[in-house]
Design goal:
This protein starts with a helix and ends in a 6-residue tail after the last strand. The protein is built from nine helices and three strands. With 304 residues, the protein is mostly helical. α1 (3-30) runs antiparallel to α2 (33-59) and α8 (224-235) packs antiparallel against α9 (270-287). It is elongated. β1 (240-252) and β2 (255-264) form a beta hairpin. The longest helix is centred in the N-terminal third of the chain and has 30 residues, at 74-103. It has a three-stranded mixed sheet with strand order 1-2-3. The chain has helices at 3-30, 33-59, 74-103, 111-137, 146-152, 157-185, 189-218, 224-235, 270-287; strands at residues 240-252, 255-264, 291-298.
Length: 304
Amino acid sequence: MHEGSRRAIIAAFLANLGIAIAKFVGFFVTGAASMLAEAIHSMADTANQGLLFLGGRRSERGPTAKHQFGHGRERYFWAFVVSLMLFSVGGLFALFEGEEKLRHPHTVESAWWAIGILSFAVLLESFSLRTAVQEASKSRDPDESWWRFIRHAKVPELPVVLLEDVGALVGLAFALVGVVVAEVTGNGRFDAIGSLAIGVLLVAIASVLAIEMKSLLIGEAASPRRTKAIEEAITGSPAVRQLIHMRTEHLGPDELLVAAKVEFDRSLTFEALARAIDETEARIRSAVPSVQLIYIEPDYVRTG
């Protein structure tokens, strides 16, 4: 796991842990449904950072007889589990709590406590989001939008933390509005509506993450930029006449598999062909260091 991903996860873990404790205190004091929904949300986020760490640790294991391409996809699997946690523990619980309080309104007590705690949570979440944005900016192309980065990033931790932090800040805004309006109007249903809004938000974010992590788990090709670099490395080899076709797949965020059919100079002896293949592989790894496994099949284009 890259140091940037690790820093973003640590920042999010510490922020969410502190926020969760503060929100639970706020719920016990105020009884606000949106406060409880936010507390559960923060606890789920804290557990999620632990799962991302677990995935990073397990992905570092080397190849085994059973898993001969290594365990790089562990990071994708645990990020997918995080999306399920957000959906179930965060989103569905908030929806259930909001629906319950909507049918049985509860007057918010000590609303200023809730407002103070939620404002404190906004500060911590802003710190976490700032850290995630700084680390993600190092991987994001300058002309790439944030939405495109989230959709196409091969490193799962940064998109997960970014979406979690954005969702947390928007959820805090919903909770603040719900508590303030409930206090001003004396109608506890506004607090319940805030909880429902948080639930819908978390379900939406979890769905986006699940779709993206599923795609990575199934296996995604290298980015267009890396694909072009690999193709140029192959065709730039002196002994190569042409690249017939090529396939790439991410075995993990930092591990690429490349398989290619290549037409070499037909005058090469067997020994010279072997050297030409080794040279081509070295050129590929020099151009794209994340390429771990390369399979090159010598072939020729049949014209008849």
